[in-house]
From TrEMBL:
One of its GO terms (cellular component) is nucleus. This is Poly [ADP-ribose] polymerase. Residues 914-1096 form the PARP catalytic domain. The keyword Glycosyltransferase applies. Its EC number is 2.4.2.-. GO terms for biological process: negative regulation of gene expression. Keywords: ANK repeat, Glycosyltransferase, NAD, Nucleus, Transferase. ANK repeats lie at residues 138-162, 186-218. It comes from Rotaria sordida. GO terms for molecular function: NAD+ poly-ADP-ribosyltransferase activity; transcription corepressor activity. Pfam families: Ank_2 (PF12796), Macro (PF01661), PARP (PF00644).
Length: 1096
């Protein structure tokens, strides 16, 4: 690698010094008992950092400074004032060090990516994967650098193993005021540089894994444009992209269809009569049909028809085509006419625009039904989204449909009906919509309802076939139709329409307005944006060099035989350097030269566990992997070493594009190791790797060692039996409207709304992050850095089938009473957060039932009892699953026992009366502004005024909060407190916060995910005060220079002095306090925000 510049050396030294002073501070804090000393140490650290930066910044370039500031800004460092705007805390320092160490190593990793050093990159990814998508000191990502210099294997590793984001853009660290020109490298993606440099293999690989070829860099160039001067790249895109239907483009397209629509908005406005986003200055002087003729660029389609029983599509007349187009080019909120009658010359057509079907009446008054289709993009031509359909005209087991009736099928039946339309399921529909948006000519999809057959879809001709041409058919789309509803997106079935429905087309304008109105979720919005990378999580997609396997197929990839390994016709044979017999056999074939070469390579690669030497045709295999492995008498260490050996060998073979590997029975010779343990470990680890990599594995056992051969066969058969018997075992119980289910299975495979994890299980957290991918890991650590005291960290699901993951801050306790209380609190907090997201299905693992020295019985009994109670009391229509690992039979049995035990009697409902001051509303309003003339307003304002003397100028408004669901939960709590304590412990207290937090609280109550945001001195919960002046300190100015504060009803119950170590209330108490005016609650519904005061 290239030598370091002085600037890099100075930056590294600065980062190292920061790491040292923070590490020293952490060590000093650990030795302190007095909290005041801790605070002084942190204050001293901030001064040390300031001094260090003052002494070092002048020696750094602008880009090195900004690289450093990019780290510090995450911890609220104010560059101009040279201070941390929010003071550092003891809990933040470990993540601070991790960040600095990662970004220090990242400087070397970026150089390694540039020069193709895979060892350094792998070490970096294993230790600091959180930073893998960052841009380096010189503005390039790891993946960009590897693609730039044609390091194909490194690109594969970064995407498949490192899970780097494929469309991540470069970001520069140069000072914006000192840049003389915009650089093309900034904003560019790996595909940009691969196209620009003509690396065709990397270009194909990146696109096959979701690289966006229309994404723009800072010079507004696409990867396609970057590759225009490279003949091989230009030829690839000419073959890959669709150039049109009725009108072919002369040049390569440079934007998606959705972007094309945005570019043509002036023409769109014309279609909307006088325009909406832009008004015409003159009256329109031609019909829409004439306008279409004049503006041929926006109409690019071919209308065709097919008689039911025929296998040929014929063009529809130009006049009828124009009228069909006019019927579909409509205003976004205009009622959609599903059926129309068109008269062309003397012919009358009864056309269903919903079903793309028309009929004519014969002389004998019988109807002829004819299918129609529009070959082209529904988005480009009509701005509407589509439901895609396929029709089989040839299939080996297809049944001929001679019926004249209209019958539409879904992709679930196994009996294929020929000449019938099949609606594509959601995943496949999204793929078609997306590849059309990206103008792709062909796509290969695995159709699971026909035995996962690979089908090649031709999106230019709207046809499909398999590779053997034994399956053939047609493709079309019909418009997606929805109810004209301003509060919810409700799709309808085009073939089961009721009469007199108010229907509209689901088009781009509707989605945009629905987004503004908050009708659809962020996930739905992302779906309708049709981003290319979003369809590459689907296992149903297939590419020429992208293969997949599953657990059922893995048994066909493992082979156990007896023979001589050097005679095996395998891509790779594995030889352990400790195996004298095999080594001598190899040397016999190659002579002294191979022995010298091997010894030299071992000396040159002391840290490499695999030495690869090609066979040069002297053996049936292509390459020999000499592995440096040593046996160990410790069974755990022995297993770990074999697992690592298998992982390293398979990973290397995959990276070098080999398809088969042959292992000997390594370790089963004269070392005294357990043959059973070695065979079991090999079989298990190979099976786990085959789930990820489809590669053929053989074990070759010496002919005279039948004992080893029999043991390998025994372990292989045993493992297969375990796989077959691991069919999900479950029992369930209906509880009023809800259901609790106990299941033996895998938590990461649960298709529910929310998966629950706990901070007490580091293993489970890592499993979920690995399975969920980068999105989960980054969201988790970012949330932790922002608020390390949060009791719940909610992240997206990433690649998991659920919608969200809740990481709960919970630790089991050996004390039975404290353990029981902690489980009660855990269940309550989970339920409150699930309610706030409007979810209705959860999956719990067996929290606390692993390696903790606490009572499993108490945990399970309390979990089941509390969940039953909450479902009954709140009348929840939920599915709650407890997922137990298949090898934990005793835990599964205990969960089943507790679930099926006699149900306790809970109050299913609680009588309550809404406050008399509440106003009725049909719109589900939550906020009502009080009149200044009412006693209600005057009472609140007078108390606020007395407490806030000289801290405010005027009250802008006081709003009453009418959240009935929350109020009902609060009253249930109030009733329980009064019954238990024989007195009313309710207080009116203040809570200051930002406007954004206030809006969230009104919707979702005092959600404990905010716990610790306003401090942790008296416990990690939600803080209230009887002093409005104190709560004022936690408010924030909004854009109108206004602040807001809640006046809340709070149940303090039995309270005790709190401290910052309290994550929940101490046993026997309901809240913690400072002993004066501050109270901390630990249940979301323990307080009700009754009024919100907005003031200046």
């Amino acid at each position: 690698m290239a030598s370091e510049s002085n600037d890099e050396i100075n930056l590294k030294q600065c980062l190292e010094l920061l790491i040292i002073i923070i590490s020293d501070t952490i060590d000093n804090i650990k030795q302190q008992i007095n909290q005041s000393n801790e605070k002084q140490l942190i204050n001293n650290l901030q001064i040390q950092i300031k001094n260090l930066l003052n002494n070092n910044l002048l020696s750094l370039s602008f880009q090195s400074r900004n690289y450093l500031f990019d780290i510090l800004n995450q911890y609220n460092y104010n560059i101009e004032e040279k201070i941390f705007s929010i003071e550092l805390t003891k809990n933040i320092l470990p993540s601070f060090i991790y960040n600095l160490q990662g970004r220090l190593f990242f400087i070397d990793a970026c150089q390694a990516a540039w020069y193709g050093d895979e060892l350094i990159i792998k070490d970096f990814i294993q230790k600091y994967s959180l930073f893998k998508n960052k841009s380096g000191l010189y503005g390039t990502t790891l993946l960009y650098s590897a693609a730039r210099n044609n390091h194909f294997n490194l690109v594969k590793y970064l995407i498949e193993i490192g899970k780097c984001s494929i469309n991540i853009k470069n970001e520069g660290y140069n000072d914006k005021n000192h840049e003389t020109k915009i650089k093309a490298i900034i904003g560019s993606t790996p595909l940009h540089t691969a196209c620009f440099n003509g690396h065709i293999d990397i270009v194909k690989y990146l696109i096959e894994h979701g690289a966006d070829y229309f994404i723009l860099n800072n010079l507004y160039e696409t990867p396609i444009q970057n590759g225009q001067l490279r003949t091989n790249i230009r030829k690839f895109f000419e073959d890959f992209l669709l150039f049109g239907y009725s009108k072919k483009l002369d040049i390569l397209p440079n934007r998606t269809i959705i972007e094309e629509i945005k570019q043509n908005k002036d023409i769109i406005d014309y279609f909307l009569l006088f325009g909406y986003s832009k008004k015409l200055d003159i009256l329109p002087n031609r019909t829409i049909i004439e306008e279409i003729k004049q503006n041929k660029d926006i109409i690019d389609c071919i209308w065709e028809y097919k008689i039911f029983s025929h296998h040929q599509w014929l063009p529809i007349s130009l006049e009828l085509s124009y009228q069909l187009q006019q019927s579909l080019i409509i205003n976004s909120n205009k009622k959609f006419q599903t059926d129309i009658i068109l008269k062309i010359s003397t012919d009358i057509y009864h056309i269903s625009l919903a079903q793309f079907l028309y009929s004519t009446i014969n002389n004998d008054q019988t109807k002829n039904f004819i299918w129609i289709r529009c070959r082209g993009s529904s988005l480009l031509n009509f701005h509407c989204y589509s439901q895609w359909q396929i029709m089989f005209i040839q299939h080996p087991t297809g049944i001929i449909n001679n019926s004249s009736s209209i019958q539409i099928f879904n992709m679930t039946t196994t009996n294929i009906q020929l000449n019938s339309w099949y609606n594509c399921n959601t995943k496949i529909n999204l793929i078609f919509e997306t590849v059309m948006n990206y103008r792709q000519k062909n796509i290969i999809i695995n159709l699971d309802f026909i035995n996962n057959e690979q089908i090649i879809f031709d999106l230019e001709n709207f046809t499909f076939n398999n590779q053997q041409n034994t399956i053939k058919g047609f493709l079309r789309w019909i418009p997606k139709i929805i109810l004209n509803n301003n509060s919810k997106l409700i799709p309808v079935d085009n073939f089961q329409l009721s009469t007199n429905l108010d229907l509209i087309l689901l088009n781009i304008s509707y989605i945009k307005q629905a987004q503004l109105n908050g009708i659809i979720s962020i996930d739905e919005i992302n779906q309708y944006e049709l981003k290319y990378e979003n369809i590459f999580d689907n296992e149903i997609l297939n590419f020429s060099n992208k293969q997949s396997t599953n657990e059922k197929d893995s048994k066909n990839l493992i082979n156990i035989i007896q023979g001589n390994i050097i005679n095996e016709q395998s891509d790779v044979i594995v030889i352990c350097t400790l195996s004298k017999n095999l080594i001598e056999s190899i040397f016999t074939v190659y002579g002294k030269s191979l022995q010298n070469l091997l010894e030299m390579k071992i000396k040159e690669n002391l840290n490499n566990s695999i030495i690869s030497i090609t066979t040069d045709g002297k053996l049936p295999s292509k390459v020999i992997y000499f592995v440096l492995w040593k046996p160990n008498s410790n069974p755990d260490i022995l297993c770990q070493s074999i697992q690592q050996l298998v992982f390293n060998v398979i990973e290397k073979a995959i990276n070098e594009n080999y398809k088969s590997i042959t292992f000997p029975a390594i370790g089963c010779g004269e070392y005294g190791c357990s043959i059973r343990l070695i065979a079991e470990t090999f079989i298990k680890q190979v099976h786990e790797q085959l789930i990820k990599y489809p590669i053929k594995i053989s074990f070759v056992i010496q002919p005279d060692r039948t004992d080893i051969y029999n043991e390998f066969c025994k372990q292989f058969n045993s493992f297969q039996q375990q796989e077959q018997s691991s069919i999900t075992k479950s029992i369930s119980l209906i509880i009023e409207k809800g259901k609790i289910e106990i299941e033996q299975g895998d938590i990461i495979k649960q298709n529910v709304d929310v998966i629950i994890a706990s901070s007490s299980s580091e293993d489970l957290t890592q499993i979920l992050m690995k399975a969920g991918g980068d999105e989960v890991e980054i969201a988790y650590y970012q949330a932790y850095i922002n608020n390390p005291n949060s009791l719940i960290i909610s992240t997206p699901s990433g690649q998991l089938p659920c919608k969200r993951i809740f990481f709960i801050k919970w630790e089991p306790n050996r004390d039975p009473e404290l353990l029981q209380q902690s489980v009660i609190d855990l269940i309550w907090n989970v339920i409150q957060n699930v309610i706030s997201y409007n979810y209705n299905s959860i999956a719990f693992p067996a929290l606390g039932c692993g390696k903790h020295a606490c009572s499993i019985d108490i945990i399970i009994k309390t979990m089941i009892r509390e969940m039953k109670k909450e479902i009954q009391m709140r009348k929840l229509s939920w599915l709650v699953k407890f997922i137990i690992q298949p090898n934990h039979q005793n835990i599964y049995d205990e969960f089943c026992k507790q679930l099926l035990s006699s149900n306790e009697s809970y109050h299913a409902s609680i009588d309550y009366q809404l406050p008399l001051t509440w106003e009725k509303s049909k719109e589900n309003k939550l906020r009502f502004i009080l009149s200044k003339n009412t006693d209600e307003y005057k009472s609140i304002s007078n108390n606020f005024d007395q407490a806030m003397k000289e801290k405010y100028t005027k009250i802008i408004k006081i709003e009453r909060i009418q959240n009935e669901r929350w109020f009902m939960q609060y009253i249930a709590h109030w009733t329980d407190f009064k019954k238990r304590l024989n007195k009313d412990t309710e207080k009116r207290l203040y809570h200051g916060c930002s406007e954004e937090a206030a809006n969230s609280i009104i919707e979702d109550c005092f959600n404990r995910s905010f716990a610790g945001v306003n401090g942790t001195t008296y416990g990690i919960g939600v803080y209230f005060s009887s002093s409005a002046a104190y709560s004022h300190e936690f408010t924030r100015l909004n854009s109108n220079q206004e602040r807001c504060m809640f006046l809340a009803r709070v149940l303090i119950g039995k309270t005790t002095l709190g401290n910052k170590s309290m994550k929940t209330r101490p046993f026997g108490f309901d809240s913690t306090t400072d002993g004066h005016h501050i109270f901390v609650t630990y249940h979301d519904a323990q307080a009700y925000a009754e009024y919100l005061i907005t003031y200046k």
